[in-house]
Amino acid sequence: MKIAISGKGGVGKTTILALMAAALRRAGKEVLLIDADPSPHMAETVGITDLVGITPIAEMKELLAERTGKAEGSPFYNINPKVDDLLEKYMVTKDGISLMVLGAIQSGDGGCACAENTVLRRLLTKLLLNPSQVALIDMEAGVEHLGRGTLAGADHLLIVAIPSRSSVRTAEKIKKLALEVGIPKIDHVGNLVMNDDDRKFLAENLDPTPVAFFPDSRNVRQAERKGESVIHHGDDTAAPMDALLTHLGLA
Predict the structure, then answer these.
(1) Residues 99 and 25 sit within 8 Å (Cβ to Cβ)
(2) Which CATH architecture group holds 27-154?
(3) Would the CA dihedral through 39, 4, 2, 201 be positive or negative?
(4) What DSSP letter does each residue of the chain carry, written as one string?
(5) Strand partners of residue 7
(6) Domain boundaries, the chain
(7) What predicted TM-score, i.e. pTM, was given to this entire model?
(8) Do 202 and 213 meet the contact criterion of CB atoms below 8 Å apart?
(9) Rounded to 5 degrees, what angle do the CA atoms 158, 242, 209 make?
(10) pLDDT per residue as tens, the chain (251 positions)
């Protein structure tokens, strides 16, 4: 199964995905985390402390140009670049969880980064081919990734929302675009829920109603502030995580 997660910036999608990876690993699943956020920090979230050797592939400009065969100033490039060797070379593993940091192309000049995104999409497709794995994809905040088609191949999209109007509006926009690009299954997940009022707000303003509501966890917040992995501090998220995995058929 390939599960992607998205939402407005700051809603906690990376934390929820890291906690999900840990829960799946404890259940004996083979887990692959794919960090496709332009500001990736999944490695630190799951406890990988040696960050010096981790460079998002999206930032490897020479490598991307070489794989697409695109000459500077030329509009032509290879639409089927070789990427198989990159999978093993740039994948890291921690406590049985494999991580591939893709990042995302950011075009500061407003121009098209089609060639570079072709490599990332090709890598993403290859990473999602193994039927024995549960692949978890941490997408960038907002909706840009849907416009670029980088969610192709995902079976399920989880849209994280917190109890705020702006978060709900972004969640609904993401859902609309996800339906347009044909993602088979879409669900909402509530986060930073402090009380019944928060739960009610999300339930009444999101369609479908969130399949799980995660608390505003003090333990997780403290771990993040200390630069520690959150996956060992999520005791108060166990019940909603069980609900989420049961809904996904992974419990």
Answers:
(1) no
(2) 3-Layer(aba) Sandwich (3.40)
(3) positive
(4) -EEEEEESTTS-HHHHHHHHHHHHHHTT-EEEEEEE-SS--HHHHTT----TT---GGG-HHHHHHHHTPPTT-S---SS---HHHHHHTEEEETTEEEEE------TTS---HHHHHHHHHHHHHHT--TTEEEEEEEPSSSHHHHHTTTTT-SEEEEEE-SSHHHHHHHHHHHHHHHHTT-SEEEEEEEEE-SHHHHHHHHHHSSSPPS-EEE--HHHHHHHHTT--GGGS-GGGHHHHHHHHHHHT--
(5) 160
(6) 27-154
(7) 0.85
(8) yes
(9) 45
(10) 889 999 999 999 999 999 999 999 999 999 999 888 777 788 888 888 776 667 788 788 788 778 888 766 666 676 677 888 887 788 888 888 888 888 775 554 444 566 677 777 777 777 766 677 899 989 877 766 676 556 666 889 999 999 999 999 999 999 998 888 888 899 999 999 999 999 999 999 999 999 999 999 998 888 888 888 888 776 889 999 999 999 999 98
Alpha-carbon distance of 223 to 69, in angstroms, equals 44
3-state secondary structure of 139: strand
